[in-house]
Automatic annotation (TrEMBL):
<feature type="binding site">
    <location>
        <position position="119"/>
    </location>
    <ligand>
        <name>NAD(+)</name>
    </ligand>
</feature>
<keyword id="KW-0560">Oxidoreductase</keyword>
<dbReference type="GO" id="GO:0006631">
    <property type="term" value="P:fatty acid metabolic process"/>
</dbReference>
<dbReference type="GO" id="GO:0070403">
    <property type="term" value="F:NAD+ binding"/>
</dbReference>
<protein>
    <submittedName>
        <fullName>3-hydroxybutyryl-CoA dehydrogenase</fullName>
        <ecNumber>1.1.1.157</ecNumber>
    </submittedName>
</protein>
<feature type="binding site">
    <location>
        <position position="97"/>
    </location>
    <ligand>
        <name>NAD(+)</name>
    </ligand>
</feature>
<feature type="binding site">
    <location>
        <position position="92"/>
    </location>
    <ligand>
        <name>NAD(+)</name>
    </ligand>
</feature>
<dbReference type="Pfam" id="PF02737">
    <property type="entry name" value="3HCDH_N"/>
</dbReference>
<dbReference type="InterPro" id="IPR006180">
    <property type="entry name" value="3-OHacyl-CoA_DH_CS"/>
</dbReference>
<dbReference type="InterPro" id="IPR006108">
    <property type="entry name" value="3HC_DH_C"/>
</dbReference>
<dbReference type="InterPro" id="IPR022694">
    <property type="entry name" value="3-OHacyl-CoA_DH"/>
</dbReference>
<feature type="domain" description="3-hydroxyacyl-CoA dehydrogenase NAD binding">
    <location>
        <begin position="6"/>
        <end position="183"/>
    </location>
</feature>
<dbReference type="GO" id="GO:0008691">
    <property type="term" value="F:3-hydroxybutyryl-CoA dehydrogenase activity"/>
</dbReference>
<dbReference type="InterPro" id="IPR006176">
    <property type="entry name" value="3-OHacyl-CoA_DH_NAD-bd"/>
</dbReference>
<dbReference type="InterPro" id="IPR008927">
    <property type="entry name" value="6-PGluconate_DH-like_C_sf"/>
</dbReference>
<feature type="binding site">
    <location>
        <begin position="10"/>
        <end position="15"/>
    </location>
    <ligand>
        <name>NAD(+)</name>
    </ligand>
</feature>
<feature type="site" description="Important for catalytic activity">
    <location>
        <position position="140"/>
    </location>
</feature>
Length: 283
């Protein structure tokens, strides 16, 4: 099936990034969010991020202007009903995602594919809360979406071959590369990345190194663009904790126990960059 119009639920960091790359690749994009402020800020955020690409010379000014015209913020979830595909990119909380599916599904055309950008919640479990498990799958983008090349594609138990092929085609048209992951706790990237971040938090807690030493060691010692603690702040410490909890609960191995220091920071509201305080102080 051909996908022309895509709905995005959530105008936060991931939702706006997904809307950005869809619009640049020629899709008509409808974005909704329960927060009027987030919705109002969306065109500005996307324009600013596209401007970075224009400055770097990876996108032309004309392509940016055309893409921005294809982007439509809408306060109404019901308008997403006529999209060929809807990508849910709301907060990483299962109850929030399920409430969205319950409100959205009655408006969806029977052919519409429903995808979730969840970073760790089981796809089959989410699919079972919709009317279309065969037209449901995980399409997991990396942050920042306009910059990162990878998209993880995850089938639920009932996902049809046609649905999966349509998602593969979409990823290709976005100019990104898909990695296929099994519906298993935290999929591939977060299964491997988050234990490293959690271990960095343990190393900090145990005094193996300070924040700067740990990040410098990993940045310069293993050629990573960001050190693990800087990356944790970038992802959000609440998201890191929630993914570690999914790994610990889902795999039942003590090696996935969330670091107490990570938990303390989350309890303090030190959630990383978005809270202007995490392992680093951004104030
Ligand atoms: N759109 C949106 N944001 C953009 C952007 C664009 N077109 N181009 C750059 N950025 C952002 C960066 O995140 C950063 O944000 P701030 O403005 O808040 O500082 C800033 O712009 C820096 O931009 P630069 O042009 O200087 O970019 P850089 O060359 O320093 O690279 C980076 C920045 C690409 C983020 C690089 O540091 C990097 O690759 N870091 C690792 C990112 C990573 O590992 N992401 C995956 C996280 S895991 C995940 O996403 C899965 C999950 O479920 C948790």
């Amino acid at each position: 099936m051909e996908i022309r119009r895509v709905g995005v639920v959530g105008a936060g960091q991931m939702g706006s990034g997904i809307a950005h790359v869809l619009a640049l690749s020629g899709y008509e994009v409808l974005v909704t969010d329960t927060s009027p402020e987030a919705l109002a800020a969306l065109p500005r955020t996307v324009a600013r991020n596209m401007d970075r690409q224009v400055t770097k010379g990876t996108v032309s000014g004309a392509d940016r202007d055309a893409a921005l015209k294809r982007l439509r913020p809408t306060p109404s979830l019901s308008l997403l009903g006529q999209c060929d595909m809807v990508i849910e990119a709301a907060t990483e909380r299962e109850a929030v995602k399920i409430a969205i599916f319950e409100s959205l599904v009655p408006h969806l055309a029977p052919r519409t594919i429903l995808a979730t950008n969840t970073s760790s919640i089981p796809i089959t479990r989410l699919a079972a809360r919709t009317d279309r498990p065969e037209r449901f799958l995980g399409v997991h983008f990396m942050n920042p979406v306009p910059v990162m090349q990878l998209v993880e594609l995850i089938r639920g138990l009932a996902t049809s071959d046609e649905t999966f092929a349509a998602a593969e085609e979409l990823v290709k048209r976005l100019g990104k590369t898909a990695a296929v992951a099994r519906d298993y706790p935290a999929f591939i990237v977060n299964r491997i990345l988050l234990p490293m971040i959690n271990e960095a938090a343990f190393a900090l807690m145990e005094g193996v190194g300070d924040v700067v030493s740990i990040d410098t060691a990993m940045k310069l010692g293993t050629n990573q663009p960001m050190g693990p603690l800087e990356l944790a702040d970038f992802i959000g410490l609440d998201t890191c904790l929630s993914i570690m909890t999914v790994l610990h609960d889902g795999l039942g191995d003590s090696k996935y126990r969330p670091c107490p220091l990570l938990r303390t920071y989350v309890e303090a509201g030190w959630l990383g960059r978005k809270a202007k305080r995490g392992f680093y102080d951004y104030r």
